[in-house]
Amino acid sequence: MLWSGSSPLTVTRGSMWGFLMFAAAAWLVAGWSVLRLEPADITTVAGPIVLFGAVCEALRALAGTATWWLNAGLAVLFAATAVVMMLSDDGSWTTTAALTGWYLLVRGAVDVATGTMTRGTDRVWSLIVTVGVLETALGFLAASPMARSGQSIVVIIGALGVLRAVADLVTALRLREIATKHRDLREQPAEWAAGQAGYAAGVTDFAGARRKPAKHRAREDRTATETASQEESFHDRVLRTTAELDTMLAQAGVTGPRAGAPDRKNPPPAPDTPKGVESAPAGNAATPEHPAGGR
């Protein structure tokens, strides 16, 4: 539960739930003690009770809550109200009743606003709203003409102590519950820690291996062929191509010289005159059996 718009994480971090538990016990003792007093002593006790409320607001402001400025303003306002109550010499309880009603009205309005703001995040917001409404009602009663006797002031201040005790006690227990849940979330089981350690070790081993990415074999062969072709000369390339062609012909079953091909072992004599060159048969010339042009 939140009070005056305070943040649960901030309050838990500052161990404010322990202070609220102590404040709840102090408010309960004050409420019970006031009901046992004589009406003549109520003017002496009302001022310190309101001053204790100002101290509570100051400590909430120092806790670093989301609305610390509101708690600081309430602390100053309630401290000034307590000083006026303690310095007053009014024997008819009029000043005591009026200032007590002022404190209850302001505190009740803040509780109603806080409970309404936290209705979506806090399951006990309705209790704070209820306490704020009761405090506001007591403030109207204390400031009204019906609270002119000492007995009525005693009952109102006693009810004030009980209401503040209930509100702070429920708030302290709620914040204690939140602190326990957050501690359980932070403490992971042993299985989770072992899994995290194994995963980290696997990542480290994989990063330390530095394995090269796999390459396609056909791509490597093509790259090697291109590299070799760039390094060899034109003559070597012609020889390699001729050898590959002969290999392909041999695999196809083509052996021996082709028909009409010149004899490489016994070449014809080279002509020594231009007329002999024209009459000499060429290696690729057409034979009489196969005239050129297919006729």
In DSSP terms, counting alpha (H) and pi (I) runs of 4 or more, how many helices? 11
Low-confidence stretches: 1-14, 283-295
- Structural class determined from secondary elements: mainly alpha
Give helix and strand order, one letter per element, not per position.
HHHHHHHHHHH
Percentage of β-strand residues: under 5%
Give the mean pLDDT.
75
Overall spatial form: rod-shaped
Helix content: 55-70%
Query: What is the total tally of β strands?
Result: 0
C-alpha Rg (nearest Å): 52 Å
Span of the ends, CA to CA = 113 Å
Described by strand count, sense and barrel closure, the largest sheet is: none
Short description:
The chain has helices spanning 8-13, 16-35, 42-62, 68-87, 94-117, 125-143, 150-186, 190-209, 217-231, 234-251, 274-279. By secondary structure, the chain is mostly helical.
